[in-house]
Amino acid sequence: MSSSHANSQEKKKDRRSVREESRAVYRQAIMQAAIQIFGRTGFRDTKIADVAAEAGVATGTLYNYFSSKEDIFQSILDDGRERLGAELELLANIEDPLVRLRELVRVMFGFLEQHGALFSIYMQIGVNPVTFKCEADAGDEAFRQAILAQITAFLAEAGARVRLDHPSQTLAMALGGLINAAILAWVEGGCQPGLSDQTEVIMDLFLYGATPR
Amino acid sequence: MSSSHANSQEKKKDRRSVREESRAVYRQAIMQAAIQIFGRTGFRDTKIADVAAEAGVATGTLYNYFSSKEDIFQSILDDGRERLGAELELLANIEDPLVRLRELVRVMFGFLEQHGALFSIYMQIGVNPVTFKCEADAGDEAFRQAILAQITAFLAEAGARVRLDHPSQTLAMALGGLINAAILAWVEGGCQPGLSDQTEVIMDLFLYGATPR
Amino acid sequence: MSSSHANSQEKKKDRRSVREESRAVYRQAIMQAAIQIFGRTGFRDTKIADVAAEAGVATGTLYNYFSSKEDIFQSILDDGRERLGAELELLANIEDPLVRLRELVRVMFGFLEQHGALFSIYMQIGVNPVTFKCEADAGDEAFRQAILAQITAFLAEAGARVRLDHPSQTLAMALGGLINAAILAWVEGGCQPGLSDQTEVIMDLFLYGATPR
Amino acid sequence: MSSSHANSQEKKKDRRSVREESRAVYRQAIMQAAIQIFGRTGFRDTKIADVAAEAGVATGTLYNYFSSKEDIFQSILDDGRERLGAELELLANIEDPLVRLRELVRVMFGFLEQHGALFSIYMQIGVNPVTFKCEADAGDEAFRQAILAQITAFLAEAGARVRLDHPSQTLAMALGGLINAAILAWVEGGCQPGLSDQTEVIMDLFLYGATPR
DNA sequence: TATGAATGAGCATTCATTCAT
DNA sequence: TATGAATGAATGCTCATTCAT
Predict the structure, then answer these.
(1) Which CATH architecture group holds B1-66?
(2) Does the structure show a pLDDT above 50 at D127?
């Protein structure tokens, strides 16, 4: 009897965990599909039906996992931020601030290479603060600012090893621009592998400029 | 009689030119209105009715001057490109390629300051080649490339006055990134006057980098 | 010239009044159609598309005249209330309160005979205070109460000509019940002409009861 | 062995009757829950999920006991009719037809007081023969008619003790209207206890009318 | 048999475009 | 040619029902 009881409990647990796992799997599948479609078509032009089709589920199913089209979009952004944020946190161990800066660039490039489609979602809001309205970009703008703040802090920590006749913010903005330019070129080139290799080039131009020494 | 005939012809001409002028005035009014609304609301979220209201005409009237919502949008872009292109052509007179480069930056910044609302239209397509689909961005991407090509040419013309261990395209891309960064910061700051003043800063960072000499 | 000017003004006026008239015609046509369909199908089961079809217009057209499905429903109720209210006001001239009461019954019966379909709309909210929730019934419940209040007042004015061992409100409630019963029977009988003829019967039963004198 | 056999048969019986009892318990629980929710929200606005939640079962379970949402609704009505019918049958013992009539009113009032929520379900179809369409109201309309027929019969049985210048049906209809009015007032007053006390008032007004003797 | 997630038909509303005046 | 009302296709979301576990 006790075994049967234990068994029943076990089954319940199993069922629950199976269900939870299944939920996670569905959520991920939907988000992956949505990343593809949003990335390809843009938020407004994406039809929920298309996302469902890409995910291989019925439209109604989406609403068992997300409350609305916007919720899906937000969840993708949040998820991406979380992942990138986690990767960036690992940089804290690096002693030298300029090395840390270089690795930050490398991490971002690596992240984009891994999550190409996700990136174009970011493009829809991150690069264009004017177009995309309040609802959706709040969190993301904060994230952009957070990265810029980190770059600024690294530069400040570098002290006299970088120029002091421009404020750290200005230098950070410049590096941000160079990173974006590399990304843009990479996207235009069709997202071919090798973005990470641009790290050295970007850092070289950032640190030493276009003039020969 | 001949005078009367001449008169009649003149009248016809007048009438025709008056009509043409009137058409041009309407077109301009509609485009101005559309720039405001598109800039404020984004392409997809803009309603034709709002553009018409802003322009002070009936919705049907728009379709006497433009064939569709997209046509209006495209016309705005073409118009802007034409104007900026004309301003950039004036640079040809400048001898020194690096001075020419600096003035190119200044011209772009000046243009943006003058056409703030127009700029955010550009944002909707120019900065994000991924999102905005084929129909609309063809012309604009070409324009972007044209500017980059010009920058590249200027840099090539500068010969050994710039580093030769990176291809001119790479340097051009870097300058493009710095320009974009400055623009982005300007927009985030609320498009306050003074963007042109960033020309020196951008060129300084581009040419000499972040490392003290 | 002045004549031409006057003419132009006239035309404008004409156009405006024609337009206003046209608007009114459309509104009425849509409301009539909606009365039919709501009456036949009930609020929830009525599809906007059906109303539009019945009215002979496109679905979008409805929204040029009403802001929502509920707005159409409300407008029908308001309109009906207004008409019935106007008819009831004419009773004020009648001296004898009991005659006035009888004529009130006759007016209500006559109104229903004229607006049969409209009646079943009333049924959807008026008779069932429990089911139909807050949004829609506020105005109508108030109207019901207003009529009951009027009946109550007439009875009070009748003084000792009616029984004083029950409060006027109770008597009014009873008369209301008799009216409703007659209406119900009339509806069940297929809304055949002759409802007004029930006035005397209802008043007779109300005043003298079921017991022979 | 035979005992074991008998035992086994007994067990089967037990098991079956246990199962049947269990089925009945579930059915009742679901119907009770549905009465609450339907009464609160109305048929169309009630979600099966809400009924299931109120009943404390899964949505799928409902469909093991009822074939559809409408089936649940119908079952509630049938059940209520059955119960009320049973109570009304007890009146048969009463000799005097007018006393029987009075007790019929009392039984109905008592039934409503006991089954308040059920009542508002009745309201959704019983009082409004126009709105609620054929599928659902057939049974109920029949029941309404059955009650009216009973009232009519009682009145006919009363012979000259009631007025003969109106057909019994008309008198029955009048009493039905008075009953409804009392119910309506009771509902509007929030279903406070004491509805049964209205029996005397209703009968008094029905029998003697509003005119003092 | 209970479960609860998947299903997908159904529907109110929007808005670019057309067209009669 | 200007007008602005009519048009109707398009789409996000709901929820009764089914079904695999």
Answers:
(1) Orthogonal Bundle (1.10)
(2) no
